[in-house]
TrEMBL record:
The chain crosses the membrane at residues 12-32, 53-72, 78-98, 110-134, 146-172, 184-205, 211-231, 252-274, 280-298. SUPFAM superfamilies: ATPase domain of HSP90 chaperone/DNA topoisomerase II/histidine kinase, GAF domain-like. It holds the Pfam family HATPase_c. Its EC number is 2.7.13.3. Residues 512-716 form the Histidine kinase domain. It comes from the Bacteria. This is histidine kinase. Keywords: ATP-binding, Kinase, Membrane, Nucleotide-binding, Transferase, Transmembrane, Transmembrane helix, Two-component regulatory system. It catalyses: ATP + protein L-histidine = ADP + protein N-phospho-L-histidine. NCBIfam families: PEP_his_kin (TIGR02916). The keyword Signal does not apply. InterPro entries: GAF-like_dom_sf, HATPase_C_sf, HATPase_dom, His_kinase_dom, Sig_transdc_His_kin-like_C, XrtA/PrsK. It comes from Novosphingobium pituita.
């Protein structure tokens, strides 16, 4: 028999075992001190006194056992006695847990088993005395000593086996709430005794205590104290350690790095043990390969996403840290502190509100890109903004009005992966446009509903680590969507107020214009009255011509300041007008300019209009086309008729306009691309055409030119007696 009686040094497995027992004793003492302090302060006073003292006694005895093992070594008689005391204390803890669990009918058969196990364990001191007596007689390696050693090990295995059976019955027989409280304590006891079962089995087979197994036994004891401490804290304290997601992510990263370092050390050491002439070359090759692997994986966004998912899934009850998410959400929405201006432009230098809206939602699900669709005048959804998604191909009609009604009424968040698999919960498959279902890069659709009205729809791009959306995603996206919808609605209200203030400013300017015109009218009226009496006076005629010239100059200056061609005429009737003849007559205004008229039909194109109003609209469109075209570039007026409508198109090949400007800025009052432009010409032209029961359509491409089409009802299709139209009334109706 080879049972070492003392540590051979502080190196190798012996040193590892000694330090492991020292740390285990320290951990047990700390835990015992904490439990004594709780006992002294009267915590858990409702429990029986013996039940409250059993864990304290067990932990302190374990600390004493670990100290003796570290001091004398595993084969010393003092260590053997300490081993007996530790097992008896742990058996007492098991009995106390049975009593505390309230299973009175099962405690009775447990008592005899515990008594038998305690008696068997108390045979160890007797065997130790017998072994010491034979050793003193000069028979250190006798057959009797070997037999005593084997009997001691067999008895120890019997006690450990019985103790493990009791721990198993204690945990399995407990009810749900009790099982939660017993989990950690039973786990610690099973860990310590489970390793001892294997340890003494190996000791019996080799008839010695291997230093490697003794060192591992010390580490298992240290781990068992840690698990026992967790059990005591979970059982007696409601306080829970709740690290932030950032700390958990960093801790997991440190564990991954530590595991990687241990792997490198183990592999390098294994290569060194193999020996051979290629040892150094193999080590260098391994270091080079692992370094390249780290440089490839560490910057990987997919790896970081996987770590985040693992942390959220295994460390926290909820996927999201709602406080951090809401702070980031509000910071993204509010950054720049600017209000989106008329025509989709910002009043400050910040990112557009629509882009920030997409970013705020995309950050929640770690989506790298997204897009926002908003309702157009006809109820369809059109593209309003992109966020980091320039390659998304969005049709002009991104979503028809009937699909908009579905999202407006249900507020349903669509997981497009489910739609592609044929899953249809509430009819979202029919409401989802085909181009969205076909584009695998689009991951989810989040409606933005404000007071039962859809103000937008956000399409989120697929994240690097794709996953299935769950209830927590839906709840958070729905709440964030309502907040964003309120923000957009508030911004639209501010736009309406801003536009109203601009109109108020415009009205004040008109008041000054009316004052100037009134002065001119008074001056001309006085001149007309004096002309009746002094028309024959040459000096009067000379002064009259000078006055008329000054009045004309003032009127021209006034018109130049207005930069427009007048306003609509209230009370005029719609009459049949040949649009082609009217266009031919207008060409004379631009003599020397490349303006031509093309008639696309043989018979006259009679449309029901106010001649002066249609002339004003066409003059504005042609002048704009000339301004947008370069010198010598032609402007065409195309007159045609089809079905029930006649059309007059003004076509140029000038600089053109972007689709975003046509959608958000062209028909917005006070938004102009011309330096010093007033920005109401296109708006006024559209309203004049609408007042005549027509429409104004625009097609434009940057660098290719623009095409403005005025569509009006043909005279043959119009009601016989149309009432006079008033521009102000028609604008309100429109």
């Amino acid at each position: 028999m080879h049972a070492p009686s003392e540590w051979t040094g502080l190196s190798g497995w012996g040193g590892l075992g000694q330090w492991g027992f020292v740390l285990a004793a320290f951990a047990a003492l700390v835990l015992g001190g904490w439990q004594i302090e709780r006992y002294r302060r009267g915590h858990d006073a409702a429990r029986a006194r013996a039940v409250r003292l059993a864990p304290i006694v067990a932990v302190l005895v374990c600390a004493l056992w670990a100290l003796i093992e570290a001091t004398y070594g595993p084969g010393d008689p003092a260590a053997l006695i300490a081993d007996v005391a530790r097992n008896l204390a742990c058996l007492g803890l098991v009995y106390a847990l049975f009593v505390d669990d309230g299973r009175h009918e099962t405690v009775a058969p447990v008592r005899p088993v515990l008594v038998v196990l305690a008696v068997v364990e108390l045979l160890q001191p007797a065997l130790l005395v017998l072994r010491l007596r034979l050793g003193m007689d000069g028979l250190p390696d006798s057959h009797e000593l070997v037999m005593i050693f084997e009997i001691s090990v067999i008895l120890r295995l019997l006690v450990i086996t019985g103790a493990l059976v009791l721990v198993h019955n204690l945990y399995v027989g407990a009810m749900g709430p009790q099982r939660q409280a017993l989990r950690w304590t039973c786990g610690a006891l099973a860990l310590i005794w489970g390793y001892d079962l294997n340890f003494y089995t190996m000791v019996y087979l080799v008839n010695a205590m291997p230093a490697q197994l003794v060192g591992l036994r010390a580490l298992v004891a240290l781990l068992g104290m840690g698990v026992l401490g967790m059990g005591a804290m979970r059982e007696r304290s409601q306080a829970r350690f709740s690290p932030s997601r950032a700390v958990a992510f960093q801790s997991l990263s440190l564990l991954v790095i530590g595991g990687y370092m241990l792997l490198m050390v183990a592999v390098a050491q294994s290569v060194a043990w193999l020996g051979g002439g290629a040892t150094m070359l193999t080590q260098l090759g391994f270091v080079f390969a692992t370094t390249v692997l780290v440089l490839v994986l560490v910057p990987s966004q997919r790896l970081r996403g996987w770590l985040n998912v693992m942390v959220s899934k295994h460390f926290f009850q909820h996927r999201y840290d709602y406080r951090a998410e809401w702070l980031r959400f509000t910071r993204t929405i509010g950054q720049g502190h600017s209000v989106q201006g008329l025509g989709g432009q910002e009043t400050g230098d910040a990112t557009s509100l629509h882009a920030r809206v997409v970013q705020a939602l995309a950050d929640i699900t770690d989506s790298p890109r997204g897009a926002l669709l908003v309702p157009a005048d006809n109820g369809d959804l059109v593209l309003a903004a992109r966020w980091q998604w320039p390659t998304l191909d969005v049709p002009a009609q991104a979503m028809p009005a009937h699909s908009v009604a579905f999202f407006e009424q249900s507020g349903f968040i669509v997981d497009l992966d489910e739609v592609r698999r044929g899953v249809d919960h509430r009819g979202e498959a029919c409401a989802t446009p085909g181009w969205m279902a076909q584009d695998e890069a689009i991951w989810a659709l989040v409606p933005l509903v404000h007071f039962d009205r859809l103000v937008g729809l956000v399409a989120l791009g697929r994240p690097p680590l794709a996953r299935k959306l769950d209830w927590e995603d839906f709840d958070l996206l729905r709440v964030a969507g309502h907040q964003i919808a309120s923000t957009i609605a508030e911004n639209n209200g501010q736009l309406a107020l801003l536009e109203a203030s601009r109109f108020d400013e415009f009205n004040r300017r008109i008041a000054f214009v009316m004052h100037d015109i009134k002065n001119l009218a008074s001056q001309l009226s006085l001149l007309a009255r004096n002309a009746e009496r002094h028309a024959d006076n040459p000096e009067f005629r000379k002064d009259m011509l000078l006055t008329l010239g000054n009045a004309a100059d003032k009127l021209n200056a006034l018109l130049a300041r207005l930069s427009r061609y007048g306003t609509g005429h209230g009370g005029e009737r719609l009459v049949p007008v040949d649009a082609g003849a009217l266009a031919q007559r207008l060409v004379a205004r631009w003599q020397g300019m490349p303006v031509e008229v093309v008639i696309g039909r043989a018979d006259p194109c009679l449309v029901m209009v106010s001649p002066e109003t249609l002339e004003q609209v066409l003059v504005h469109l042609v002048q704009n086309a000339l301004d947008a075209s370069g010198p010598g570039m032609p402007v065409r007026i195309e007159v045609s008729g089809e079905g029930e409508t006649g059309s007059v198109a003004v076509v140029d090949s000038g600089c053109g306009m972007s689709a975003e400007f046509v959608r958000n800025g062209l028909f917005k009052p006070f938004v102009s691309t011309k330096p010093g432009g007033f920005g109401i010409g296109a708006f006024e032209a559209r309203e004049l055409v609408r007042a005549m029961r027509g429409s104004l359509d625009v097609e434009s491409r940057e660098g290719l030119g623009s095409r403005f089409v005025v569509r009006l009802p043909l005279a043959a299709q119009s009601p016989p007696d149309l009432p006079p139209f008033d521009l102000v009334t028609e604008q309100k109706v429109a």
